[in-house]
Design a protein that fits this description.
12 strands, four-stranded mixed sheet, about 5% strand
């Protein structure tokens, strides 16, 4: 029994297709992620009461709950804000400059008097040398009083008093800050090289520079009680002239201080015990009651199971359609595990970017999902270009339709214009990427994407309610989106090209260079095969373009399809002559084996040089499972019962249109060389017979050819072969005259 179970499990494991399980696992990850993104459709926050609602049934706490009383916490914060003292920096140099100016002014008066300069000349000199404005009367008054009693010491004394309390310029402050100063006072700091000094100034001792004229007379009278009124007026003018604000508001330090105080506040918590009646029937919901209700039900969610099941089935249907069509049409992205993995991660990348952008970036009124169109952060063109350049355009069409459709559903408020712009940018990327043959052209593709996005922004600005600021932000995002996609393409395309061993246009261009080491070796070792291969490449390139296949891939496949003939070049007729054929003394079976081996050698050489799989496919499939008829016929003459398999290529049959074209043109080109007369009728009949024979033998069953394709190939092959073997006129011999011969 134990051995039976062991054998059962071992056989079951051997039968498991781990490649298939891996693909299903990746698809399941993408499927569940999409279900999560669609959650807004079937998941909603539990509905709770609003402020002022009347309760129809009592609400009782179902559990003991400790919750933050945000109302009381906010009261503490409001108290801090209300009593907060703005922070100012004391500029010590301002007081020093003011005092120096006072000393300089009175020194000027003293020196002028010592030199017996007249008052008139002294005033003229004052106007030229000093920036202060005193009329002649005030200037004379200052000089007269300075002679009797010193003004200088009194001005310096008053300035010291004002600067010690602090002088603030009101006009540069907001009304809120002014209110705080008038209510709470200020905090002042003064920083020297090594010491930072802080002090607090009460509201009633803070002086506003603009209000000094109203207050200065009281300050002077208080300090100099026996001074006459006219002298006080003169002193007022002098003080206000030399006084400047010495306290500068520090927005940075004020905000820092405010945050420190707010962070020190600890939240106020209340406890509601289970069974407590929060609101009775008929009562209105007050602010404090609403806070308790929200705390109890804030994390409660409701699930619409019917919608969830419906969305799950809907997504499953989309996945099933994609899988069926891809498998049915043998798409590379589903057959090749590496490409399938790339496809899944591309889809995850697109939808993850959408989710992160919506969740963490589009979170305010200016930059929101309602004003920023979703095509700007759906990097579908990037994915389309990568897929098209790696595996052609066929599957990229399907990706565009599917992703555009799913993205539109995921976005909360999509519009038709945004969907069409995303679709247009993706389709343009697909069509342009087919034409790219230089890496620098990727930047032009980025410019095209930006222009399409810009057009979409302009259309939305015209027909929608988005603001001009939103339009400008969307335009900036359009620029960066196109730049990012160009960078991603430039960065990842070479990596994917290497990792997937695929034939991108850039790789094919390198291989199409006739100076490529493989082609140089082929030309050196098998010149006839080389000429045949180059001719084949040019022929299949034309036909591939006619039927809508990649002409560059077709040409390169034609160049390399016979590289295996480098191993035994002289056993192939194009590298020798019939008279020198090395097959004369060989048995037909051995000759057939040598000819068949050129496919195996070709694959080995291709893998050694790291050629893409599509080129290797052309090498393996260009003969399919056809029979080497010449040597099979010779063998039948010797032995009627000879094994036909000895003369049959191993295959596989062509699995793409390009390898099937190479098979047909290879056969047609070889057979046409053996024609006696290259007339139109003979060539047309030869092409028809070869194509019909391949169809009857089933060699084209897996190629995907349509009757229209075969008809095009037949017509184009006829034209190309006729050009290759066009009739030439016979040039007559020139018979020289007898006289000229004698001369």
């Amino acid at each position: 029994m134990r051995e039976t179970l062991k054998d059962f499990f071992e056989n079951s494991i051997r039968r498991l297709n781990f490649n298939f399980i891996y693909k299903v696992f990746l698809a399941l990850i993408l499927y569940l992620f999409l279900i999560f993104l669609f959650s807004k459709i079937y998941v909603s926050t539990a509905s709770i009461l609003k402020l002022g609602d009347t309760v129809s049934a009592p609400i009782v706490a179902s559990k003991t709950l400790r919750y933050e009383n945000k109302i009381e916490t906010q009261k503490l914060k409001d108290k801090i804000v209300k009593t907060f003292k703005p922070v100012f920096e004391e500029k010590k140099s301002i007081a020093a400059v003011s005092k120096n100016e006072v000393v300089g002014f009175f020194d000027f008066i003293e020196k002028s008097q010592q030199m017996n300069i007249s008052t008139k000349m002294m005033y003229e000199s004052f106007q030229n040398d000093f920036p202060y404005i005193f009329d002649v009367f005030m200037f004379n008054e200052i000089i007269r009083y300075e002679t009797e009693n010193t003004y200088e010491q009194k001005v310096l004394f008053i300035l010291d008093k004002l600067y010690s309390s602090g002088v603030i310029e009101k006009s540069i402050l907001t009304s809120g800050i002014i209110t705080s100063i008038e209510s709470n006072g200020i905090r002042v700091y003064r920083s020297d090289e090594f010491i930072v000094q802080e002090k607090t100034i009460d509201a009633d001792t803070v002086y506003f520079w603009e209000d000094i004229n109203e207050n200065i007379s009281g300050i002077i009278e208080k300090e100099f009680q026996f001074l006459r009124a006219d002298k006080i007026d003169t002193l007022e003018v002098l003080v206000t002239t030399f006084l400047s604000p010495n306290l500068m508001y520090s927005d940075k330090e004020t905000e820092k201080s405010m945050n420190e105080l707010l962070n020190e506040i600890k939240p106020v918590y209340d406890i509601v015990k289970k069974g407590y009646t929060i609101v009775n029937t008929g009562e209105k919901v007050t602010e404090d009651k609403l806070l308790i209700i929200q705390s109890i039900y804030s994390n409660a969610f409701t699930y619409n199971i019917r919608v969830l099941v419906g969305m799950a089935l809907f997504l499953f249907l989309i996945f099933a359609i994609v899988a069926f069509t891809s498998i049915y049409y043998k798409n590379d992205f589903f057959i090749d595990t590496k490409k399938y993995t790339l496809l899944i991660f591309e889809m995850l990348f697109i939808f993850l970017i959408i989710h992160l952008t919506k969740t963490y970036f589009l979170t305010n009124d200016i930059i929101s999902e309602y004003s920023i169109p979703f095509y700007l952060y759906t990097f579908l063109p990037f994915v389309v270009v990568i897929n098209t350049m790696i595996s052609g355009k066929a599957f990229s069409y399907f990706i565009i339709y599917t992703v555009t459709f799913l993205t539109t559903i995921i976005i909360v408020q999509p519009n038709l214009i945004s969907t069409l712009i995303l679709f247009t940018a993706s389709m343009a990327s697909l069509l342009i990427s087919e034409k790219i043959n230089k890496r620098s052209q990727i930047y032009l593709l980025g410019l095209l994407i930006f222009l399409i996005y810009l057009l979409g922004n302009v259309i939305l600005l015209i027909i929608s309610d988005i603001s001009l600021s939103s339009f400008l932000i969307a335009t900036i995002l359009a620029f960066f989106s196109s730049i990012i996609q160009v960078v991603l393409i430039s960065l990842f395309l070479p990596l994917f090209e290497y990792a997937l061993d695929t034939a991108t246009v850039f790789k094919l261009q390198e291989l199409a260079d006739l100076n490529n080491p493989i082609l140089r070796n082929l030309q050196k070792k098998a010149p006839g095969t080389y000429n045949h291969s180059i001719s084949m490449g040019n022929l299949v390139e034309v036909i591939a373009r006619d039927i809508g296949e990649n002409p560059l891939l077709a040409k390169v496949s034609g160049y390399y399809h016979d590289i295996g003939k480098m191993e035994n070049p002289l056993y192939f007729i194009e590298n020798t002559t019939i008279l020198d054929s090395r097959h004369k003394n060989l048995k037909p079976t051995l000759s057939a084996s040598i000819l068949k081996n050129h496919v195996k050698f070709g694959v080995e050489i291709a893998r050694e040089y790291g050629l893409p799989e599509k080129i290797i496919d052309a090498i393996k499939e260009h003969h399919g499972t056809s029979i080497i008829r010449y040597f099979y016929a010779l063998a039948l003459k010797e032995n009627v019962e000879v094994d036909k398999n000895l003369f049959q290529y191993a295959g596989p049959k062509p699995k793409s249109k390009i390898t099937a074209i190479i098979m047909l043109i290879d056969s047609i080109e070889a057979a046409s060389r053996a024609l006696g007369e290259h007339t139109k009728e003979n060539i047309r009949q030869l092409i028809k017979e070869i194509i019909n024979a391949k169809i009857l033998e089933g060699e084209l069953n897996d190629s995907g050819f349509t009757l229209h394709d075969i008809d095009l190939i037949q017509k184009r092959a006829f034209q190309l072969i006729m050009v290759a073997f066009h009739e030439r006129i016979a040039y007559p011999k020139i018979i020289e005259e007898e006289g000229s011969k004698k001369g």
